[in-house]
Amino acid sequence: MSIVRRITFLIMPLYFLVTSVAASSPGTSIFSFLKICPAALNAGMGETYVTAAAPSAWENPAVLPWVGHPELTVSRIMYLSDISYSFLQYAHQIDMNTSIAGSLSYLGVPAMDRTVSDGSIAQYAEQGTFSSYDAAFSLSFGKRISRAFSYGVTVRGAQESIDSSSTAGAMLSLGGFYRPPRSDWQAGFGVTNIGPTVQGFDLPTGFFAGVAGVICAHVFWSSEVIGYMDQIVDLRTGVEYEINHTLFWRAGYKYPLKDYGLGEFPNINLTAGAGFQLNGMVLDYAWVPYGDMGNTHRLTLSVPFGPDVIHKRISEKRR
After folding, report:
1. Of 274, 216, 270, 268, which Cα lies nearest the Cα of 250?
2. pLDDT on residue 120
3. Structural domain contains residue 118
4. Distance of alpha carbon 146 from alpha carbon 168, whole angstroms
5. What is residue 236's three-state secondary structure?
6. What's the distance, Cα to Cα, between the start and end of the chain in Å?
7. Domain count across the chain
8. What averages of pLDDT result for each successive group of 10 residues across the chain (319 residues)?
């Protein structure tokens, strides 16, 4: 298959998905936790994924061949209402052009009181507690087919459980990544979570397309349009400022094409974060607000098993 045909194969699902988003109804998909940005690196930059870093493979598996080394990523999110979210990913480089990754994600909800009705007296009573969780397992493959372009595929299984009831489903994601040789700029695009309905509910199918690059010394910028079949399309942007190759400051902004309906909190569209690199390991933090619902805090530890090729290349360009 030629490069042109492969790129067309990736772009066509994106085109048909974008044209159908406006006709979909909000809040109708299952496995909505798959929309959560799991890594602090991406979350701090407006929840954008257009960067050649291993955590970006959650959305776009095509970035994997550009990472340049095996890497373990562990994330912990302090989410809303005491809900916690954990994410574990390992990316492995097979050769110079091929990489794979596997990830696990788990969202746990604290035990809640079970309330039951007594039909005979038309009253309600508490009867023990029940728990709820969401989990997903992903396998990703990325292949560079030229000096400038790669494609990626992710197969993902997800499960939701509430008390004694549970639902499971499978889905597919496709992505492309373009980075010309000796260029400070890169681009990514694709579709996520494609698959059949699960018990009559649509999957959280989405699309993304964006660009990123070094805009001046020590400053990396990214911008992306991202949307889901049952959610407002966002225009997102983020910046990262590097200090002495060790400390990174990040900020981002998400511009929804319509009001989220989450309240009048003035910073609802802002994100912020920081990163600290020492001996190859990177600890990232991100703050992401959700209006009147509260704030979320995310911590990610990335441990590379080899030279950080991409970071070195970006650092050299920023000097």
Report:
1. 274
2. 57
3. no
4. 37
5. strand
6. 40
7. 1
8. 50 49 57 91 94 92 93 90 89 94 90 60 60 91 95 96 84 94 90 91 91 91 89 88 90 79 60 90 91 84 71 41
CA distance 39 to 41: 5
Where are the alpha helices (H) located in the chain, listed in sequence order?
A: 3-21, 40-44, 64-67, 309-318
Structure confidence at residue 186 (pLDDT): 93
Considering the domain boundaries, does residue 303 fall inside one?
A: yes
The residues, any chain, with a CB within 8 Å of residue 123's CB and separated by 6 or more, are: 117
In the prediction, which pLDDT does 108 show? 85
- Residue reference for tokens 């492309």: 176
The CATH number of the domain where 87 resides is what?
A: 2.40.160.60
Q: Which domain holds residue 75?
A: 3-110+128-318
Is there a contact between 89 and 103 (Cβ–Cβ < 8 Å)?
yes
The pTM for the full model equals: 0.81
For residue 122, tell me if it sits in a domain: no
Cα 277 to Cα 240: distance, rounded to the nearest angstrom: 14
Q: Establish if 292 belongs to a structural domain.
A: yes
Query: CB of 134 within 8 A of CB of 10?
Result: no
Distance CA 226, CA 291 (A): 20
Counted residue by residue, the chain has a size of 319
